[in-house]
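Pilot study result, target chain (370 residues):
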Amino acid sequence: MHRLHLGAEFASAPHALAQLALEVVPDLVIGLDRLGQLRFVNREVRAITGYADDELIGKPFVATLVPEELQAACHHSLAALLRDGTHEQRDPSVIRTRAGQRRDIVWMYHRLPHEVAPGVVILVVGRDVTEERLASQRVLRQQKLLAIGTLAAGLAHEIRNPLNAAQLHIALLKRLLASQETQPETMETIDVVGGEIKRLAGLVSEFLAFAEPTPLVKVPMVVQTILGRAVAAMTPPSAVAIEVSAPREDLAIIADPERIELVIRHVLDNALAALAPRGVGEIHVRARREPQAMVVEIEDDGPGLPSPGAPVFDAFFSTKPNGSGLGLAVSHRIVTDHGGTLDVESRPGRTCFRIVLPLDEAPAAPARPR
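Predicted structure:
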């Protein structure tokens, strides 16, 4: 009741017309007290975050709406504003919505000359630049594809044919030598060569998947089934545990199950690679349904990304010694093609990839294999 009372105080302020204007503007408008607690939020804040007034009023702005890795910078901005009396300060940031989506916001902090309403000393105005960022990224990715796509596909096709021939001849050679008294060292060498050829063939397949994507085949699918298949395909070291947490009821969506499983496997591969140097750790896979989306989070307790802004979803960027730099790029495009988002939060000791798929359609849940 106390939080509701705070909101009511602001609503009953004498500046009713000004308050109405703040309510209907297309920007996010927030009123904070000296402790950084939310005293007022307008309609745009509620629409973008998915939270109601009673879930926000009276709560700390930074802890409630700002991702953990950006909270220190936001606290610094607010403290400087109160200490120095600066009239305005800009701060690009990110907020996490109730549905688990990531929205890019440019905040402007205004120190008010006096309390325009009980307790309100800072006015925070935010502009949602998510679509601008996504549009810019799409243009950049498209430019990269146009520049390398044709060449990449041509090279991949030319390389795949001799690789297939090499794999065939390795198999024939092993069969021939197996019928003779061949030294074990020789057979081991042949196995190594065959393994490397198989790895190259896999890289070529990844290259083609990136350069020549095929249309999605969307069908009703159960998220728990896909997670089970992806986890079963992993071969973690004995000291690395993969834990899956999901509701008992089927989480059903309409999507391309093969592509979504590929995304999960790529992210799990990335988590296992992060834990490889230490040889021990935990990977937590969580799935849940939000009001507007299906959310899958894959979190590891590895060292974290080398830098918070590392372009992990860019083609050919990799933090792994032998990585192709295509797995996460392909995964990002698959999720985007589904109308969803794939993003990452990372700090030392924790990296979390979040896959958000929209629930535009409500399929009947297919039977889950028992």
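One observation from the pilot: The first helix runs from residue 2 to 11. A full batch analysis is planned for the follow-on phase.
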